[in-house]
Amino acid sequence: SAASDVYKRQVGDRKFSDYTLQKIKKHLSKISTRSKSLVISNPLYETIRVTCAVNFNDDCETGSALQTLITTINRFIAPWILQRNETHKNTDSKNQILDPSSLLSHLLALPEIETIGGLSMVQLHQSEEDDTYVFRETAGTGEEGLQPTKPWSVFVPSTSHNITIVNTPVNDVTVPLYIGTMEIENDFILKK
């Protein structure tokens, strides 16, 4: 989708080179009043994928409503990406908690939405220690929200979300993400 493409262009896998990290460290060391040594590193990107079933209002155009839904989900996950001229409440990843009930309330406020059901969020990132992937989700796990795993972690929206459009009102039963709904190179990782 167009919203996902914007996020890919703005974030992608942006990483500073070792040379740039050293330049940043050198500059900050000159102006820092702290006696401790500085540690400068790249962010750890943690992908968030939303799964839900949505029933749009009869008087809205489905394609436009879906685009609004995706953009709203992406801005909820990473408000710092598309809102360059706007201020947002939280840029401190230590305190960032993505709560499905907050997202649900946020989405139900959209005029295009009649009902939403089965809302859950999946958090996926590659481990810094080895070549494995860490996968957490809110559906059926008792997790009330997702938090970044490291202080230098940054949430980014998945390039696609698992949204099912239905023509009848839906209930709010969450369903865990199963292998059949995963996508290769998105949240289903094959290791060589």
Describe the fold and architecture:
- The chain has 5 helices and 5 strands.
- It starts with a helix and ends in a 27-residue tail after the last strand.
- The chain has helices at 2-10, 18-31, 62-77, 79-82, 100-108, and strands at residues 44-56, 113-126, 133-137, 153-157, 162-165.
- Strand 2 and strand 3 form a beta hairpin.
- Strands 1, 2, 3, 4 and 5 form a 5-stranded mixed beta sheet that branches.
Write the layout of secondary structure elements.
Elements: H1 2-10, H2 18-31, E1 44-56, H3 62-77, H4 79-82, H5 100-108, E2 113-126, E3 133-137, E4 153-157, E5 162-165
Parallel strand pairs: 1-4, 1-5
Antiparallel strand pairs: 1-2, 2-3
Helix pairs in contact: 1-3
Concise summary:
The protein is α/β, with parallel strands linked by helices. It contains five helices and five strands, in the order H-H-E-H-H-H-E-E-E-E. It has helices spanning about 1-10, 20-30, 60-75, 80, 100-110, and strands spanning about 45-55, 115-125, 135, 155, 160-165.
